[in-house]
């Protein structure tokens, strides 16, 4: 049976990198014999032009019937404020579908400029709780100002989400050669919230005796990550720490253009690059498609596991190998990677490498 995958382009460079991702995924699926029913779904500025809303009525219900989708970056910073028809889809999706797990891998390449070599880290960031004001309450807003000059923020941590994200981390670690999980928190100070998180990580660790486990206090971790990132394999952490530390990790391997990701619940997943819509370079065809293409690859990996679809695993491997080759050859790299290829030239090169594999 065919998998159904949505294509949601987003804004700005989303219109440039998402088509490259789909191009490569289609090539890999065809080669692996994986049938996919692709469903372009209007979202963001283009959807507003057509339907008067950045998330047109019925979108949430439609997406729920898919196996997953690709979401391009949203240019929400330039949306009109205080207009309910201009909504950033990302936090809406995260909350509506309960995407608690954000998988973010960071890998250095020998021939690309990076602060360190031999980095291969997978971050598992919880994304529905914590200090993130847009996402941690069913209704209402987690930050408020009782009197001028004083702001109060609410941090939410539950046993359930801590356990779920820890389980996702240990399951992911089992599939990697080093089999190590580092839980990052600060339970020495945030005794209840981070305390719950750490307790749940520890309980899950006891169920995975084949995976090495350690805990690192977040400030120490931030320093160790800069000094010796090679010591980390899978890192599990809470929402805000993960937000900051994953941008730090992106900086270590060469920038946001190299930072893919998947947002997942237990039954649905969305491929989404870490970077934003980059309006400063949009429309020039120079955005790096790596992060979006590799997010698509990660969606295939997720589908391989959760839909028990070995052909999706094969398609993911084809993309990974093709990307490794294009980067090693260094003939079709975008400007941020030191080359002079256009977005579509790099996408074409990866698609060709998939075909040739
Ligand atoms: P947001 O808050 O929406 O996530 P941001 O503030 O993190 O956005 P980005 O849009 O990610 O900002 O852009 C940050 C910088 O990285 C910009 O200079 C942008 O041009 C650059 N950048 C982001 N993505 C890419 C990419 N795919 N290729 C090349 N440069 C990129």
3D structure, described in words:
By secondary structure, this protein is an alpha/beta fold. It has 2 domains: 1-97 and 260-357, 3-Layer(aba) Sandwich (Isopropylmalate Dehydrogenase), CATH 3.40.718; 114-253, Isopropylmalate Dehydrogenase (3-Layer(aba) Sandwich), CATH 3.40.718. 41% of the residues lie in helices and 17% in strands. The chain has 11 helices and 12 strands. The strands form 2 sheets. It has a 10-stranded mixed beta sheet, with helices on both faces. A two-stranded antiparallel ribbon has the order 6-7. Helix 1 (14-32) packs parallel to helix 11 (343-356). The two termini are 25 Å apart. The model has no long low-confidence stretch (mean pLDDT 95). Bound molecules: adenosine-5'-triphosphate. Adenosine-5'-triphosphate binds next to loops.
Query: What's the CATH topology label of the largest domain?
Result: Isopropylmalate Dehydrogenase
Q: What's the rounded overall pLDDT mean? A: 95
Largest sheet: 10 strands, mixed
Annotation, overall tally of beta strands: 12
Determine the N-to-C terminus distance: 25 Å
Q: What is the CATH level 1 assignment of the largest domain? A: Alpha Beta
| Count of helical regions | 11
Can you say what the CATH homologous superfamily of the largest domain is?
Isopropylmalate Dehydrogenase
Estimate what percentage of residues fall within beta strands: 15-25%
Cα-based radius of gyration, to the nearest Å: 20 Å
Overall helicity: 40-55%
Structural class: alpha/beta
Unreliable segments (pLDDT under 50, ≥5 consecutive)? none
Bound ligands, named by name, code or SMILES: adenosine-5'-triphosphate
Shape: globular
**How do the helices and strands follow one another from N- to C-terminus?**
EHEHHEHEEEEHEHEHEHEEHHH
CATH architecture classification of the largest domain: 3-Layer(aba) Sandwich
The tally of structural domains comes to 2
């Amino acid at each position: 049976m065919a998998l159904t995958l949505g294509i949601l382009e987003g804004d700005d460079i989303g219109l440039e990198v998402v088509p490259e991702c789909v191009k490569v995924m289609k090539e890999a699926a065809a080669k692996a014999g994986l049938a996919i029913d692709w469903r372009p779904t209007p979202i963001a500025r283009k959807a507003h032009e057509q339907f008067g809303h950045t998330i047109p009525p019925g979108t949430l219900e439609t997406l729920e019937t898919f196996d997953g989708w690709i979401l391009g970056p949203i240019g929400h910073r330039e949306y009109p404020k205080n207009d309910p028809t201009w909504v950033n889809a990302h936090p809406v999706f995260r909350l509506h579908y309960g995407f608690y797990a954000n998988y973010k891998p960071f890998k250095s390449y020998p021939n690309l400029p990076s602060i360190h070599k031999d980095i291969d880290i997978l971050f598992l960031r919880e994304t529905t709780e914590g200090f993130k004001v847009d996402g941690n309450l069913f209704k209402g807003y987690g930050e408020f100002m009782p009197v001028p000059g004083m702001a109060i923020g609410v941090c939410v941590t539950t046993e359930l989400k801590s356990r779920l994200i820890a389980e996702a981390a240990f399951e992911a670690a089992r599939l990697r050669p080093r089999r190590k999980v580092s839980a990052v928190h600060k339970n020495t100070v945030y005794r209840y919230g981070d305390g719950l998180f750490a307790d749940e990580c520890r309980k899950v660790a006891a169920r995975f005796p084949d995976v090495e486990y350690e805990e690192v206090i977040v400030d120490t971790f931030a320093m160790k990550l800069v000094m010796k990132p090679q010591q980390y394999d899978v890192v599990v952490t809470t929402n805000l720490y993960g937000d900051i530390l994953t941008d730090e990790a992106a900086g270590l391997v060469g920038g946001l253009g190299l930072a893919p990701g998947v947002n997942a619940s237990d039954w649905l997943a969305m491929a989404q690059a870490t970077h934003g819509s980059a309006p400063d370079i949009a429309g020039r065809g120079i955005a790096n498609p790596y992060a979006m293409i590799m997010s698509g690859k990660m969606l295939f990996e997720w589908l391989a596991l959760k839909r028990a679809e070995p052909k999706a695993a094969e398609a993911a491997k084809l993309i990974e190998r093709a990307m490794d080759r294009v980067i090693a050859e260094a003939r079709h790299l975008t400007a941020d990677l030191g080359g002079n290829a256009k977005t579509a030239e790099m996408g074409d090169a990866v698609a060709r490498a998939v075909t040739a594999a």
